[in-house]
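Page 42, continued from yesterday. The earlier attempt failed because a stray header line got pasted into the input along with the sequence. Redoing it now with the clean sequence only.
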Amino acid sequence: MWAIPGELPGAIARQYGGYLMNARFKEKAGQIYEQVLVLRCQTGDDAAFAELLGRYEKRLGHYVRRLLHPAESPEDVLQDTWLAVYRKLPELRDVGSFKVWLYPVARNAAVTRMRRRRDWAELAQEPQTMAESSEHTVVLAEDIARLHAALDRLSAGHREALTLRFLEEMSYEDIACVVGCSVGTVRSRLHYARQSLERELRGQS
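This time it went through. C-alpha cells are written below.
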C-alpha cells in the first residue's frame, strides 16, 4: 500500500518533494512565458501571436467542438475567435488572465453562430439547485470513443461545463468567468451534466 507523501521514507520523500518543486517551477515558468507572449502581442509582435495561437489552437478547437452541434465544423468559429483576439488583445490589462479572457471570446463566437439552436437555449432553463454530489462519481469510460460519443449527445451547456472542468481543469471561479454566471450555477450545471453523461453511458451498455 502506498504511503501518503508525509509518511514517505526520507530519501523517497526528498525525491518526491524535488519532483513536485520541479513540476511547479515548470508550471510557473510556463505561466510567466505566456504573459511575456501576451505583452509582446500587445506591442504588435506577430511572431508572438502565432506562438500564442499555437499554444491554444488544439485545446480551443476541442472546446469549440463541444459547444457546437457534432455535425458542425468549428473552423469558422475558431477563425472568428482569433480575429477577435487579435483586435481586442491590446485592451487586456491583466496579462496573467489571458486564458480566462480567451475562452469567453471563443464562446461568444460560437453563440453568435448558434444563437437560434434549441440546445443552447436550454442553458437558461436548467435548475439552479443541486443535491450533494462528488465529482469523483463521474463515470469514466474505458472506451474513449464511447465517452466522446456520449458527450456529443449532451446539450451544448453540459458539454461545455464538462470540457472546462475536466479537460481544461478550470476552477469553478474561472468557469463562472468564462460562462458569465455565478459559481453556484456552475456547480449546478456540472452536477446535471454528470448525471446526463452517466445516463448516456449506461444507455450504451
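Notes: The chain has nine helices and no strands.
Reminder to self: strip header lines before submitting.
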